[in-house]
Amino acid sequence: MQDINTCPICGSTQLYTLLRTRDYHYTQEEFPLKRCQECSLTMTTPRPEDNDLARYYNSPEYLSHNARPTTLFALAYRLARHFTIRNKEKLLRKYQQQGTLLDFGCGTGDFLRHAQQCGWQTYGVEPSEHARAIAASQLKNVYATIDLVPLKSCSAITLWHVLEHVPDLQRTLTELANRLTSGGTIFVAVPNIESADSLYYGPTWAGLDVPRHLWHFNRKSMERLLQQHALKLVRTIPMKLDAYYVSLLSEKYRHNNRLNIPGYVRAMRRALMSNRTARTTGEYSSLIYVATK
Ligand SMILES: [Zn+2]
Known about the structure:
Elements: E1 15-22, E2 30-36, E3 42-44, H1 72-95, E4 100-104, H2 110-117, E5 121-125, H3 129-136, E6 142-143, E7 154-160, H4 169-179, E8 180-191, H5 196-201, E9 215-216, H6 219-228, E10 232-238, H7 240-254, H8 261-281, E11 286-292
Parallel strand pairs: 4-5, 4-7, 5-6, 7-8
Antiparallel strand pairs: 1-2, 2-3, 3-9, 8-11, 10-11
Helix pairs in contact: 1-2, 7-8
The chain binds zinc ion.
Zinc ion binds next to loops.
């Protein structure tokens, strides 16, 4: 295990324990979260060593990498994802003409395949060998690391629920910013720890997903991180469907990994309330940060 004693965003050592949660999805191991007093970044610490993190992704039903849905849950996730893939590409086009797109953490490549059909040249980076093999069987330019993506080559870069997984935040942002053309746009989607569903579910909020999620952002910490890399935040966009999926999982975690009909109803109500509250606060369950170079 390794301890994070210094905030990677602002360098402060003033960290306090926010809560204790566990890996409800897989190992049931306990992990504390600490928050930086200065910039309010929340981190999973102590956390597994970097070279030990892969085994926390070995769960057979780890959804992002599972190509064939076998449960009702997985199927619902699939359907929501296919719906959002189209919306994501439409969002890109609001900011960039079709050019070159890098999807960092591209998983099995579903989003890239759709983007390619819409006219984008694509790069994919995916560390998981299994997911990468699936992506590479249908797409060119899919790599294990970002090194092979040329500098200043991408007019759009996307990270769909990826940044919270990367061990080295600053290095990753530097590498990404280097790949972006001047005037290019980066889209960073992450769970929002200040959302109403997060505040309600607390340690059983599924958006925490420790120890796979190493960082837990709010708007303040994300904006500061982007600024440090000369990326100007132009907009935050809600991901309203995430409130439903995350609330369902959170209900399950809260009740010994079982979800019955009343739990299902509670989750739906909670998600509705979260999205309604966010209409005034802006604190949706997940947010897409849109920033330009
Ligand atoms: Zn900080």
